[in-house]
Amino acid sequence: MSSIAKKENLVYQRPALRTEKEYSFCPGCGHGTVHNIILEVIEEMGLQEKAIGITPVGCAVLAYEFMNIDMQQAAHGRAPALATAINRMMPDKAVFTYQGDGDLAAIGTAETIHACNRGENIVIFFVNNGIYGMTGGQMAPTTLPGMPSSTSPYGRDVETMGGPMKITEMISQLDGVYMSTRQAAHTPAYVRKLKKAIRQAFENQQARKGLSFVEIVTNCASGWKKTPTDANKWLEENMFPVYPLGDIKIDGKLVK
Amino acid sequence: MQKEFKLMKGNEAVAEAAIRAGCDGYFGYPITPQSEIMEYLMLEQPEKRTGMVVLQAESEVAAINMVYGGAGCGKRVMTSSSSPGISLKQEGISYMAGAELPCLLVNIVRGGPGLGTIQPSQQDYFQSVKGGGHGDYRVIVLAPASVQEMADFAVLGFDLAFKYRIPTLILSDGIIGQMMEKVVLPEQRPRFTEEEIRKNTPWATVGKTPDRERNVISSLNLIACNQEAHVNDLKKKYDTIEENEVRYETYQCDDAEHVIIAYGSSARISRKAVDLLRAEGRKVGLLRPITLFPFPKKQISDLVAKKVKGFLTVEMSLGQMVEDVKLVVNGQTKVEHYGRVGGSIPTPEEVADAVKSIM
Ligand SMILES: Cc1ncc(C[n+]2csc(CCOP(=O)(O)OP(=O)(O)O)c2C)c(N)n1
Ligand code: SF4
After folding, report:
1. A125 lines ligand 1 (CB under 6 A)
2. What does the DSSP assignment read for B286-355?
3. Each residue's pLDDT tens digit, A176-209
4. CATH numbers and ranges of domains, chain B
5. Which residue is closest to B23 within chain A, CA to CA?
6. What pTM, to 2 d.p., does this model score?
7. Which of A13, A136, B101, B136 could anchor a disulfide with B96, C-beta 3.0 to 4.6 Å?
8. Contact residues, chain A, for B135 at CB < 8 Å
C-alpha cells in the first residue's frame, strides 16, 4: 500500500481552498463536487485574494463553511443583486454567485435576468436539480413534466403548473451574457468538462468580458427519493433530454 | 472658509450630502415623492466627482440587496424610496440587521395603506421604529424637520451606521423631500480606500488575504443557542444606542404646562401652534424627537416629573408615536393624539385647537 502512496501517483486531493469542515450534503449530492471544482479553479488561477462568493438560501447556503474565501450569504433569490453592487464598486475582484434552481429560476428570476441584461462582470453558477432540496423536495420551476415532488405529489401537471423552465436558454438571448453553458458533475468525464467551463467563466470575468453563466444539471437523491446511483441514472435518462448539455453561448455569440 | 449656501429641495440635499459624505454607491428604484434623489445623482454623475456608483435597480427588492452586498464589503452605501418601496425592502433590512451591516436608508413617506396617495404622511412610524421586517431588531431612525437636516443626517446617518454596524434610516416625508430651503452643504470627504476598509472594518468581504481568516457576511445561525446569543448581543447594541444617541430639540418647554410631541413636518407645524398659543398667554411647549429610535424617553419622563399637565402628540397618522409616549408616561398624566391622515396636513390653528381641547 505504502509503495503506491506517492506524489506522482496522486490522482485527486482535497482542494487547497476547502475548509476542514465536512460537507453536510446528502450522499451522492452534486453540490459537493461542484464546490470542489470551483475551489480548484479559484486556486489554480490564483484568485483567492480576489474571490468573493455569494451563496443563497438553499442546500448551498452553508457554502461559506466549506470555501476558504470571503463570502456573503444572500436572501433567497437575491445573490445577483449583491454581486452587482460588489462588482460595480470593486471591479477588480472575482465575484461569483452559486444558486439553486428554486433560488435562481423562481424567487430570484428578476435579479437573475436583470444582472444578465446589465452584463454584470460576474460568474453565476446555477445548480439545477429539478427540485427544492433544502426545504424537502417541493416542486421547482425546473421540475420535469409528470415528476412527483412533495407539492406535486401526483406529478407536475403542465396544464396547471407550467412546464420546466429553461432559464439558461432564456438569459442567453440577452446581450449582456457573454457565455452560457450547461454541464453536469456526476462522472469524472463530466467533471473534467465542467472544470474547463468554470475556468473559462472565471477567465472571462478576469478579462472583463461580461456575465458568464454556468448551469450544472445535478441530482437531488433525497428530493427525488432515490438512491444516489439510481438518481444519477434518472438524471441521464430524464433530465438530460429536457436540459441538453453543452455550450449555449460562447464569446458573446449563440452557438446554434 | 466661507460657507456654501444653496437653495435645494430636501431630496436633492440628501443626495448631494451623500456624495459629500463619501458615499460609494446608491441603488434605487423610482417612486414619488422621492424620485429626485436618484434623478439628482444621475444628473450629477458622482462617479466623475468621487467615483461613487449610482445604479437604477430592477426593483426595490434588488436595490436593498445591492445595498447588502456593498455594505458587506465595508462600503458606504445607500438606498431611498417611499412607503410601498420601503415595504418591499424590509426583508433586506432585516437581513442587514441580522448580519450587522451599516447603510443609509431614506424613506420619503407617503400616505398608505396600499398604493395610497403620493401626498406626505407619517404613517410609517411603527414600521420604522419597531423593526419593520421580521425578527427582533431595530434600526436607528433620524427624523429631519428641514432641508438642512436632510443634508446633515446623510453624514450623521452614515457615521452612526458605521459606528454601530447598523442600518440607519432617515424617516422624512413628501413635505421635507419636496420643499426648497437654504442649506449649508457639508464639505466633501474622501471615500474609503481599500486599505482603510481592511483596517477599519476588518469584517468586510474584500478578498481573503493570508494574514486573516476568511470573512463571512451572514444572518444565518442554525444552532439555537448561537442565534440566541447573537440576538442578545444585538439587544446590547440597541441598549448602548439608547444610552448614547438620543437626539431631540425642545421649544418653550421650561415653564410649559402642556407639551406637544411631534417630529419632522408635524414638528414645524406644531412650533407655529406653540407661538399662536403663547401669544394667547398659554404655557405650551414642544418636544421634537430627532431620533425616533432611540426615542427620547428620559426627556419625556423629565417633563412628567416637572408636572406637565398633558401631552399631545401631533402626527400625520392615526396615532403611532403616541403609543411610545404613553409607554413612557405610564398613566401619570394625560396623553392625547391629534393627526390628519391620507396625505392631509394639519394647520397650526388646528393643532392649537387640539391643544386647547386637552387643557
Ligand atoms: C423568502 C424565503 N422564502 C422561502 C424560503 C425557504 N426556502 C429555503 S431554501 C428554498 C428552496 C431552495 O431550493 P433550490 O434553490 O432549488 O436549492 P437546493 O436546495 O435544491 O440546492 C426555499 C423555498 C426562504 N428561505 N426565504
Ligand atoms: S437535499 Fe438534495 S440538493 Fe440538498 S444536499 Fe440533499 S441531495 Fe443535495
Report:
1. no
2. EEEESEEES--HHHHHHHHHTT--EEEEEESSSSSHHHHHHHHHTTSSEEEEEE--TT----HHHHHHHH
3. 999 999 999 999 999 999 999 999 999 999 999 9
4. 5-194 (3.40.50.970), 248-357 (3.40.50.920)
5. A89
6. 0.97
7. B101
8. none
